[in-house]
């Protein structure tokens, strides 16, 4: 009996000795605070791209870096509390993804913790950085410039259905660049003499109301403006357009893959990989102020021919020749 207790005691000592270095190593790992306006369900492939970027810089989650995630699921009002919580955890870097509301909330929470952002618009106009080449302060990151593309998307949609009398525009008024979207889309519509109907939605209830308004107005096509909340409701929006037989255009290829007719924008996976690369650089000691804001160099047009066929739309040879990807 005494020998058995002695063996148990030695075993416990051995386990504690082995666990000690592991616990110390875990405690010594830098922690990334990752906060997003999106949801984990629609971001798995984006996180894979982010982790690829981290790995390129020598960091692997669970081995030499930890990540704490916070997801707003399209609820922008939750972001300030999420940012404050991550700041209180003294994370080494804040990675703020999913558009403008995320870095704006982080900026309000801290001016010292390094931050890497992924947004759709102009970070200088937003007040997040001082300039693209020399960001200054504690923030840098990637802009997709997708929020500047709404007039182009409206023009592409008009080219696709040139005779449509009324085009619906789905807009989230709670999204930071929404007023800019509205001004640019209205100006673009006037320049091509196109009537549009703005349908606002920032919650699920409002989205259903917006759908009803678009149906009631008998819109003949739909422009879905760039917005992280809409990204989290991608399946519902694409399904609505299919039910109503509405030719529609979106910001990311993921919409076209999900059954949307047409998308025009940049690769969001490239942006997340670059966020991972920048996060790794900062973990190695680089200062955000010295890392220029990255901008896209290529915009891609994706067409879903199966959806076009279902809608009875003939895609012109010219538009097909301009497409970077055709889904058949």
Descriptive key words:
328 residues; alpha/beta; Rossmann fold; 2 domains; 7-stranded mixed beta sheet; disordered N terminus
Would you write up a description of this structure?
With about 325 residues, the chain is α/β, with parallel strands linked by helices. It has two domains: about 5-145 and about 270-290, Rossmann fold (3-Layer(aba) Sandwich), CATH 3.40.50.2300; about 145-265 and about 300-325, Rossmann fold (3-Layer(aba) Sandwich). It is about 45% helix and about 20% strand. The protein contains 14 helices and twelve strands. The protein has helices at about 1-30, 45-55, 80-90, 100-110, 125, 150-160, 180-190, 205-215, 230, 235-245, 255, 270-285, 305-310, 315-320, and strands spanning about 30-35, 65-70, 95, 115-120, 140-145, 165-170, 195-200, 220-225, 250, 260-265, 300-305, 325. A seven-stranded mixed sheet has the order 7-6-8-9-10-11-12, with helices on both faces. Strand 1 (about 30-35), helix 2 (about 45-55) and strand 2 form a beta-alpha-beta unit. The longest helix has 27 residues, at about 1-30. It is elongated and about 60 Å long. It starts with a helix and ends with a strand. Mean pLDDT is about 90; it is low at about 1-25.
